[in-house]
Design brief:
By secondary structure, the protein is mainly beta. The protein is about 10% helix and about 40% strand. The radius of gyration is 19 Å and the shape is elongated. This is Neur chan LBD domain containing protein.
Amino acid sequence: MNNHQNISTLLDNLLRGYDNSVRPDFGGPPAVVEVDIMVRSMGPISEVDMTYSMDCYFRQSWVDRRLAFPGDTNDTLALSISMLARIWKPDTYFYNGKQSYLHTITTPNKFVRLYQDGRVLYSSRLTIKAGCPMNLEDFPMDIQRCPLKFGSLHLL
């Protein structure tokens, strides 16, 4: 059996009986999701509708022990986008988001990597337009702070 077949068999076995609607460690402590954002570019900023835009890589990582697999501690698997639909993902929500989109040229700009211990790394390229209440009393010499607020949809 070649390596591709071995990986397909491994993934099929991992997902046998797996329920992607149930979070990791259900019934135990909350799932901890680590997030990082790499901003590719900022702008435009609109004083008229009080928004700003940013193009970024939005990365999330969590441990789902149901997806742990045997092997060396440094083993990782790059999963296909179709596999992404079959595993649990956090319900991340941008609280002050007005509009956003996932880049899809030439394919959806996202990837998933699975580590031997069950850690999942999910990365996507997004453009986010977010609201920013601005105080323009000293325009154009004012200073604005425009946070990006996000969290779990379940915590709303």
